[in-house]
Amino acid sequence: DMLGERGLWFKMSFFESSARVPLMIAGKGVPAGVVEAPVSNLDVTPTLCDLAGIDIAQIAPWTDGQSLLPLLDGKARTAPVLIEYAAEGSYAPLV
Q: How far apart are CA 35 and CA 72, in angstroms?
């Protein structure tokens, strides 16, 4: 939440305090470290499937995002980071 930063409340902007939220992943085969690349909540499903060894090809047409495991090996992100914004008065999420 913005907590009043810039006079704003809730996550209704892309200012740092609203958009830059840490994502932490721990588990077997996940090395300790920090990755500075931006990611999205949409990347969680492909990442968990990758960690579990599940082939995501069956649901890929209905799932956005990409696995974050390559980032752990120092590789660059290959797709833009998708961010959804759904404010009052909007009839569909904006991406």
A: 7
Q: What single-letter DSSP state applies at residue 29?
A: T
Tokens matching residue 86: 């759904």
What pTM did the predictor assign? Answer: 0.73
If you search the block for the tokens 């209905």, which residue do you land on? 62
CA distance 75 to 92: 34
- Contact between 84 and 62 under an 8 Å Cβ cutoff? The reply is no
pLDDT of 92 reads 80
Query: What is the average per-residue pLDDT within 2-17?
Result: 72
The token duo for 45 is 């499903």
**Separation CA 25–CA 44 (nearest Å):** 10
